[in-house]
Design goal:
6-stranded mixed beta sheet; 6 strands
């Protein structure tokens, strides 16, 4: 039995010298969502497997007809972000078809009284319960209703931001034309929710003839549904867009408390060492050695108390170094030593260098297919620290970055890019955990100054929040500030320990389900109650050959 898309699949394989499943997917991503409507599913894994089987079968049939065995398929691994996007498109098409059926039914009922009874029996949805009077004329000039808000999340249920992404790519490529501006302005809304206000602000930025650096980075973030309340310049812009109450609701009220990051014994020891002995380097080092010997004798070398002593001791080795003039690598190595001491007991791998996140690569694939966005992957000289859980499945936990103080002018660009990169990592964590893991922590450094922040996904938005300032001390006078850094790093450790445990538990559960479903079909109730919770906003990546150059429009009011 043939299925929708069979002819296109066959033609692709016949016309290609080396057909691959990924190549077919890139060419027909939008169409696959439409073709799959005849046998819908909420499982991206099931949909992926169905099309893999179809591809293999057609490959076999074509090769048999040509008596050739040279054709091969590669890269069969499931990209969950891409296939969840296809499932979401299927749901959007299904909702649109349902809406058209309802509206068509209403029109027929109002325009044809003689068949109203028959038509009414065809459409039993609750939307038709309130039917117009038979003599009521259809409203020809009635405006299209604004998209409804999702009652649970308070966010828009339409795909406006997906459409804006396309125009954002063209904006940064300098390819917006007059017709694009018209389409952009048609997306304006009169609503007053956070989504509505942010959407209208994005429209304003897209239509501006030139953007300052702050506006450029803010546009990239907002197209990714990231509301950055950490950067002072971006915060000042957002303050003019959202109300005070809306801003207050966005800022997390459940941030971890830095002072509770250490157990009582370790917290007391930290105060004793740095409050009483941090004015003289010799006294400080003698105190550290005395306390280390005490803990070694009591068998507490694995305790947080022993670790914080080692951290303070290693930090004093940087005293006198001219770190403000040092390279990214030098600063990173000195801080990485401290991190290694604190995190070494966790099942986490610290991967450094100019690292590219695999979650980012996966997120770029559907964006390149849908929007033609061949994104840049790096800028400048930098040192990244990617925290991973190694095993049969490597899972990324967060990405932090170190840059030289000479690059301070790029601090906002660095922050914007790492926020969007960590959004892709958080998306992957949510897919693994069925949306149970909604937060991650990461660091950002310029020179010896940095900060620890939390990135949270809530109400279909990413909200970064500052947790603590960080410092790599260069003299003994900075040890009181370093005390807060130590507390923050132990809070980071405790958070990573919890996330690592959660990830491993979810991975074990997924492996069990795969083994179980290989033997039997899932319960009907389990299938019906399963929600597609793995659809997230598309993350904006700056296209290569970026240049802000718009077509002048004399009639366009910049304030509109």
């Amino acid at each position: 039995m043939l299925y929708s898309g069979y002819e296109e699949l066959k033609k692709y394989i016949e016309d290609s010298d080396a057909p691959t499943f990924e190549g077919f997917l890139r060419k027909h991503l939008d169409s696959i969502a439409l073709w799959s409507l005849e046998d819908p599913t909420d499982s991206c894994r099931a949909l992926h497997g169905r099309w893999i089987k179809r591809f293999d079968q057609v490959m076999s049939d074509v090769d048999e007809g040509k008596k050739s065995t040279k054709r091969t398929t590669k890269r069969r691994k499931l990209n969950e972000l891409t296939w969840n996007l296809i499932v979401e498109k299927m749901n959007s098409y299904e909702r649109a078809r349902h809406t058209y059926e309802i509206e068509a039914g209403k029109l027929l009922v109002s325009a044809a009284p003689s068949v109203s009874k028959s038509v009414s029996s065809l459409f039993t949805s609750s939307e038709l319960n309130k039917q117009p009077e038979l003599n009521e004329q259809p409203e020809q000039d009635k405006q299209t209703e604004q998209p409804k808000l999702d009652e649970e999340s308070g966010t828009l249920g339409d795909s406006t931001f997906s459409f804006m992404y396309k125009f954002g790519v063209k904006k940064f490529q300098g390819k917006l034309v007059e017709d694009d501006y018209v389409k952009i302005l048609l997306m304006k809304t009169n609503g007053d929710t956070v989504d509505d206000r942010i959407k209208n602000y994005v429209i304003k930025l897209l239509c501006k003839q030139s953007l300052c650096p702050v506006e450029q980075e803010n546009l990239k973030l907002l197209l990714s549904k990231v509301i950055n309340l950490m950067n002072p310049d971006i915060y000042a812009a957002i303050e003019l867009v959202l109300s005070g109450q809306q801003l207050q609701r966005l800022q997390s009220k459940n941030l971890p408390i830095v002072d509770n990051s250490l157990d009582q014994a370790s917290s007391t020891l930290l105060d004793e060492v740095l409050d009483d002995h941090a004015t003289n380097l010799k006294d400080l080092r003698l105190k550290i050695q005395h306390e280390k010997i005490r803990l070694i004798q009591s068998g507490d070398m694995d305790s947080d108390s022993y670790k914080l002593l080692r951290v303070i001791e290693d930090a004093t080795d940087t005293f006198g170094d001219k770190l403000d003039e040092a390279s990214e690598l030098t600063i990173y190595w000195k801080f990485a030593k401290l991190l290694h001491i604190i995190l070494k007991d966790l099942d986490i791998n610290m991967v450094d260098g100019e690292t590219i996140s695999s979650a980012t690569k996966l997120a770029m694939e559907p964006n390149e297919t849908l929007y033609g966005c061949d994104a840049t992957t790096s800028f400048g000289r930098k040192i990244d620290l990617l925290l991973k859980i190694d095993g049969p499945t490597t899972i990324e936990l967060s990405l932090s970055e170190w840059k030289n103080r000479k690059t301070m002018h790029m601090a906002l660009k660095q922050q914007s890019k790492k926020l969007r990169t960590n959004c892709t990592i958080l998306n992957k964590l949510q897919i693994i955990s069925d949306s149970k893991i909604t937060k991650l922590m990461a660091m950002d450094f310029v020179g010896t100054t940095g900060y620890l922040y939390q990135l949270e996904f809530k109400n279909n938005m990413y909200i970064p929040s500052l947790l603590s300032e960080l410092i790599l001390p260069t003299n003994i006078n900075q040890m009181d500030q370093f005390k807060d850094t130590i507390k923050a790093l132990f809070m980071f450790k405790n958070f990573l320990a919890d996330v690592t445990s959660d990830v491993k538990r979810h991975l074990d559960r997924q492996q069990f389900k795969r083994n179980f479903h290989a033997m039997v079909r899932p319960l009907l109730s389990e299938h019906n109650n399963k929600k597609n919770t793995s659809s997230f906003p598309a993350i904006f990546f700056t296209p290569k050959n970026c240049r802000i150059k718009d077509v002048p429009l004399d009639s366009l009011d910049e304030d509109d």
